[in-house]
């Protein structure tokens, strides 16, 4: 295989067909970094609006480093996998206002692994650093007809290319748009004459993790000012974020609140990692005082309150049928 020819095809295709994404406007290293962290385990169409709001709120690395964790988590609310936000915040503080240029220096920052470091170095700084994510691994396996040594193959291509920034992004774009997990569009692939597989035979599918089906009661409790009672989680999952009181400990570690249940407002489905949850939202009353654990929250200011997306879903249901009874 002529690696130089393959690399040129990828770069040429990317130059013509790349999607217009906000972090590609200037390739500012900070914006590239934020985008790469957000794109881990999250679809592009979901990330773009969150990215734009996040960099508007924290426009520079120094602004992010100076922010409180609570503000950062509030800006990340709804995007999921919240450990990413904490590690990005910690790394911003460790970087002293400058995004490092090399993989070696980038990987000294909290939460920055080989892939993220390679993406920042190659995309922001055009360094010859390989990257391997799910899309790239799939493209490489099919081109070379083997799942072995993906990082070595990626290094060979980046060494053979003219522009590492375009090569690496081109591999990711081809994986996302053409060389998809199932039914790849081989007829329009720029690498169709070089590909050893020309099918979805590789990579071999791995067994999926077993999922758990849960049903959890949520309680919508208001005070006389119309504020909603929320609990600040202190466990391993979604730590330091605000949640509605819940009926058991199958999702969160906090002790369930003793309530008097009133009306069922509705049900909705939600996924948290391998948990497939059906939430049932009830109005309720309870005796509770504001504390470090519990707070009465004005839902008109939720943009400044760190909360997971299932809470936002529940509040939308409540907004369509606002409860009238305050907590006793």
Keyword list:
3-stranded mixed β-sheet; Endonuclease III, domain 1; 2 domains; single chain; alpha+beta; 3-stranded antiparallel β-sheet; 6 strands; Nucleoside Triphosphate Pyrophosphohydrolase; 13% strand; elongated
Detailed description of the structure:
The chain has 2 domains: 3-188, Endonuclease III, domain 1 (Orthogonal Bundle), CATH 1.10.340.30; 212-320, Nucleoside Triphosphate Pyrophosphohydrolase (Alpha-Beta Complex). Helix 2 (29-39) runs antiparallel to helix 8 (114-125), helix 8 packs across helix 11 and helix 9 crosses helix 10 (150-160). The longest helix has 15 residues, at 3-17. 40% of the residues lie in helices and 13% in strands. It starts with a helix and ends in an 8-residue tail after the last helix. The chain has 12 helices and 6 strands. The chain is α+β, with helices and mostly antiparallel strands and 328 residues long. The protein is elongated. The mean pLDDT is 94.
Q: Uncertain regions: pLDDT < 50 for 5+ in a row?
A: none
Shape summary? elongated
Q: Which structural class do you get from the secondary structure elements?
A: alpha+beta
Count of beta strands:
6
CATH architecture tag of the largest domain: Orthogonal Bundle
Succession of helices and strands: HHHHHHHHHHHEEEEEEH
């Amino acid at each position: 295989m002529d690696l130089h020819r393959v690399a040129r095809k990828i770069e040429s295709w990317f130059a013509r067909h790349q999607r217009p994404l906000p972090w590609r406007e200037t390739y500012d290293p900070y914006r590239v970094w934020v985008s790469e962290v957000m794109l881990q385990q999250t679809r592009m169409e979901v990330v773009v609006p969150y990215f734009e709001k996040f960099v508007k709120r924290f426009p520079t690395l120094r602004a992010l480093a100076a922010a409180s964790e609570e503000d950062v988590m509030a800006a990340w609310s709804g995007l999921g996998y919240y450990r990413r936000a904490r590690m990005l915040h910690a790394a911003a503080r460790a970087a002293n206002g400058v995004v490092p240029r090399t993989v070696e220096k980038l990987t000294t920052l909290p939460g920055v692994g080989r892939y993220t470091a390679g993406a920042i170095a190659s995309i922001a700084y055009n360094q010859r650093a390989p990257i391997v994510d799910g899309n790239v691994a799939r493209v490489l396996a099919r081109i070379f007809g083997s799942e072995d040594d993906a990082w070595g193959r990626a290094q060979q291509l980046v060494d053979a290319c003219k522009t590492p920034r375009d090569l690496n992004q081109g591999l990711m774009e081809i994986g996302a748009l053409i060389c998809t997990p199932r039914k790849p569009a081989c007829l329009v692939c720029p690498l169709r004459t070089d590909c050893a597989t020309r099918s979805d035979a590789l990579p071999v599918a791995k067994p999926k993790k077993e999922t758990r089906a849960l049903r959890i009661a949520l309680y919508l409790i208001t005070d006389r000012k119309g504020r909603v009672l929320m609990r600040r989680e202190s466990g391993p999952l979604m730590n330091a974020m605000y949640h509605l009181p819940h009926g058991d400990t199958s999702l969160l570690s906090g002790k369930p609140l003793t309530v008097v249940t009133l009306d069922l407002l509705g049900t909705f489905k939600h996924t948290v990692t391998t948990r497939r949850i059906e939430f049932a939202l009830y109005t309720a009353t309870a005796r509770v005082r504001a504390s470090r654990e519990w707070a009465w929250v004005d839902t008109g200011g939720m943009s400044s309150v760190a909360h997971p997306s299932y809470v936002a879903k529940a509040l939308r249901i409540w907004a369509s049928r606002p409860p009238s009874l305050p907590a006793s």
